[in-house]
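Researcher: Next entry in the queue.
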Amino acid sequence: NTPSGKRFNVTTLYRVGNLGTDNFDEVRKFFTGLASKKKLDKHILIGDLNFPEVKWPDTSTSVNLHKSFIDMITDEFGHTQLIDVPTHKGGNILDLAFTNISDLIKDVKVLSHNEACNSDHFGIVFKVGLDGSYRKMEK
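Model: Structure for this entry, 139 residues:
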């Protein structure tokens, strides 16, 4: 929770590229559980989803499993994908950021190769504009 009592949830997800429908079903179950607990009210999903065939930002793909995942997170859970430049040295957009609070997400930036760490992936940074008062907690 934020200091003003508002819930804010960040989920990280790594999806191995060759996982099939069983994995998709588990991810759907996880998000459905979050939604039922109202933990998707203000939500950011970030991670390496390994969807190299998806063309961003229009989400076109010939891979049905990838299309099902995108439809679930965007249509069913109301998220928008924020990354539109390559996040991998091979030129693909593999690392994604989905959110349903895009109006609070500012300064989204994909870092240059090895700027964040030594990896074949590029880091993603952004700011979340949360309002709220802060108070010092007593020890």
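Model: DSSP finds two helices and six strands in the chain.
Researcher: Noted, moving on.
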